[in-house]
Design a protein that fits this description.
- The chain is an alpha/beta fold.
- The protein has 2 domains: 2-114 and 293-325, Quinone Oxidoreductase, Chain A, domain 1 (Alpha-Beta Complex), CATH 3.90.180; 129-267, Rossmann fold (3-Layer(aba) Sandwich), CATH 3.40.50.720.
- 29% of the residues lie in helices and 27% in strands.
- The strands form 3 sheets. Strands 3, 4, 5, 6, 7, 14 and 15 form a 7-stranded mixed sheet that branches.
- A hairpin with a 5-residue loop joins strand 1 and strand 2 (15-22).
- 49% of the residues are buried.
């Protein structure tokens, strides 16, 4: 038996979330069974738990797009019992039971070995948020954005992805401008490496198709009008990565920045990213994040805290990363 956060669909279509005790026989099919040490609470998880977004596509569901744990049963020789592993995305919490439980069973192809330099808590504190931030930084680099070309903007900078993006870019010598709706967190963002804090209100309303050129690149976690304005303000030949939709899924923009300034809009997907890209991202995360940054960005909560924290996250009241301790 094991504890899990279980989502069920009520007769009226609403989502009912509760902490349940489940039997291992209820776990979905998979080659590898994992004893989970830590999971996380992400915006996508909060949408699922609160029923505020159409995330869950099979019921009942255990949410949690991240897990870090140890293999306890395996039908795959590459991941024998005792292997410490990470799983991010792959439809967990949507189509397949996820990490907000003490046990999981998943296909072996979803596993990434935990870097030896990281503890299980370290890996969870980074999770999908830090992994997505690193994929975004790697995308900027692939498209040729250099630190000497000008400032790079990060939106949603107080969230998990944004916080890690600020820290990772600053470590690599970029001039980072951090956009947030919580300007009272200015000192925290400066501590992560930002050189300037931008009020999100300056980006979140409808704007002109082309605006004054400001950014050499950007990591956008927000979407909607914010993403449209960033593209309109990006310098000639600049690159914008899109990895989130906190403001909305819409993109009310024109083609002007792309055909008149040669701006590149690069999508970043963390859910189904190929294994080689995952391994590169996690290798770099082990090398380029340190304990002081992780501890500044993340804090630990219990499984029982998740439901209330999900509502707080949706209301924008949670900063940084929430690591869920599943060892009790």
């Amino acid at each position: 038996m094991f504890k899990a956060l279980l989502l069920q669909k009520a007769d009226d279509g609403s989502t009912q979330a509760s902490i349940a005790t489940l039997d291992e026989a209820q776990l979905p099919a998979g080659e590898v069974e994992i004893e989970i040490a830590y999971s996380t609470l992400n915006y996508k998880d909060a949408l699922a738990i609160t029923g505020r977004g159409p995330v869950v596509r099979q019921w009942p569901m255990v949410p949690g797009i991240d897990l870090v744990g140890t293999v306890v049963r395996s039908d795959n020789s590459e991941f024998p019992n005792g292997t410490d592993v990470i799983v991010n995305g792959h439809g967990m919490g949507e189509l397949h039971w996820g990490g907000l439980a003490q046990k999981a069973r998943v296909p072996a192809g979803w596993l990434t070995r935990k870097p030896d330099a990281m503890s299980a808590w370290d890996a969870a504190s980074i999770g999908t948020a830090g992994y997505t931030a690193m994929l975004s930084v790697m995308a900027l680099e692939r498209h040729g954005v250099r630190a000497d070309q000008g400032p790079v903007l990060v939106t949603g900078a107080n969230g998990g992805v944004g916080s890690f993006a600020v820290a990772l870019l600053a470590r690599r010598g970029y001039e980072v401008h951090a956009s947030t709706g919580r300007v009272e967190e200015r000192d925290r963002l400066l501590g992560l490496g930002a050189t300037e804090v931008v009020d999100r209100a300056t980006l979140s309303e409808s704007g002109k198709p082309l605006q004054k050129e400001k950014w050499a690149g950007a990591v956008d976690c927000v979407g909607s009008h914010t993403l449209a304005n960033i593209c309109a303000q990006t310098r000639y030949g600049g690159v914008v990565t899109a990895c989130g939709l906190a403001q909305g899924m819409d993109f009310p923009a024109t083609v002007a920045p792309f055909i008149l300034r040669g701006v590149t809009l690069a999508g970043v997907d963390s859910v189904y990213a190929p294994q080689a890209l995952r391994e590169e991202a996690w290798k770099r995360l082990a090398e380029e994040t340190d304990a002081s940054v992780r501890e500044q960005i993340a804090y630990t909560a219990s499984l029982e805290d998740c439901i209330e924290l999900a509502h707080q996250l949706i209301r924008g009241e949670v900063k940084g990363r929430v690591v869920i301790d599943l060892r009790k």
